[in-house]
Specification:
By secondary structure, this protein is an alpha/beta fold. It folds into two domains: 92 residues, 2-Layer Sandwich (Enolase-like, domain 1), CATH 3.30.390.10; 214 residues, TIM Barrel (Alpha-Beta Barrel), CATH 3.20.20.120. The protein is 37% helix and 25% strand. Helix 3 packs parallel to helix 4, helix 5 packs parallel to helix 6 and helix 9 packs parallel to helix 10. The chain starts with a strand and ends with a strand. The structure holds magnesium ion (MG). The site of magnesium ion has 6 residues, from loops.
């Protein structure tokens, strides 16, 4: 097997502000695995603030793996990209393309200023999105309440409003914000606090479904979330969780415990978005996924990973 690596940088149109910090661009390693004239593609792009390795560690691990492809790299982002390339290579060897299909995706609203939030939500609705995800807990509770109320005013009840606190609220802040707004209009809150044992109380007090995202790190953590009944939704990022094989494993665990699955981008480039889109089609074709991130970049992504009418299309 021949593995080649190619570095590239993608620029975000405007910085994405979360409780973990601000992201302005993405440094990506594109992975090509070739065997007998057949190709498999993967991509690795760590965001260290989300608990992944550094870019340098990804690069070193993938370079070692390219010389010794029998042993997958250890660091999670490098491992996920390598596993994705190998999974795609196996698929390509079947010489049977996956059938065309489409999955619904949400629009991500990452802006901090209220005027930008208003414009981004209006654009998302006009573009046909069926769900809007608002980043919260990156500033203060008063502005969170203001932005959530604005979002509720702007979207009609057929569009889902999801929130993502990235663990940035305390339990009291989460309860303050979520009991001040019309909780019946909020379909999901991801990682409301950094402590999953808080989440049951938040679900109980507000009725809002809680999603686990950053806490889905390894089997031990996932088992603990299940034991605590902390989350009703698992937001799975294939590009940090070990690629397609690990994603399938977590989705099976979720299904066995009556937990919904949303497949999510890690502000991915085109190749990892394609991997995630195919997993979404395979594992939860009726769900609205977190894969509408292509328009956040200055670079124009290929058509099959660009949201069109709120969907990604496998052509
Ligand atoms: Mg999240």
């Amino acid at each position: 097997m021949l593995i080649t690596l190619n570095n590239k940088t993608l620029q975000l149109r405007s910085p994405i502000v979360t409780a973990h910090g601000t992201t302005t661009d993405r440094h990506i390693i594109e992975i090509t695995a070739e065997e007998d004239g057949v190709f498999g593609y993967g991509e690795a792009a760590p965001l260290p603030s989300f608990g992944a390795e550094t870019f340098e560690e990804t690069q070193i691990a993938l370079t070692e793996w390219s010389n010794n492809p029998d042993t997958l790299p250890d660091p999670p982002v490098a491992r996920s990209g390598a596993a994705a390339a190998l999974d795609h290579l196996q698929q390509s060897k079947l010489h049977t393309p996956l059938p065309p299909g489409a999955v619904a995706v949400q629009a991500l609203i990452g802006a901090r200023e209220i005027s930008s939030v208003e414009r981004q939500i209006s654009d998302a609705i006009n573009d046909g999105y069926r769900a809007v995800k608002l980043k919260v807990a990156a500033t203060d509770t008063a502005s969170d309440i203001e932005r959530i109320e604005l979002a509720i005013r702007l979207i009609d009840s057929r569009v889902l409003l999801r929130l993502d606190a990235n663990g940035g609220w305390t339990r009291q802040q989460a309860l303050t914000v979520l009991t001040r707004v019309d909780a019946s209009r909020i379909a999901l809150v991801e990682e409301p606090t950094s402590v999953p044992s808080d989440w049951g109380k938040i679900k109980q007090e507000t009725g809002i479904r809680v999603g686990a995202d950053e806490h889905l790190t390894d089997r031990q953590q996932i088992d603990r979330l299940i034991e605590l009944e902390a989350a009703q939704t698992f937001v799975i990022k294939p590009s940090i969780l070990g690629g397609p094989p690990a994603t399938r494993g977590i989705a099976a665990l979720a299904a066995a415990n009556d937990i919904e699955v949303v497949i999510s981008s890690f502000l991915d480039g085109p190749i990892a978005l394609r991997t995630a889109r195919d997993l979404a089609l395979e594992l939860a074709p009726e769900q609205i996924h977190g894969l509408g991130t292509a328009p956040l970049f200055v670079e124009k992504f290929p058509q099959d990973v660009q949201p069109i009418d709120g969907h990604l299309h496998r052509l």
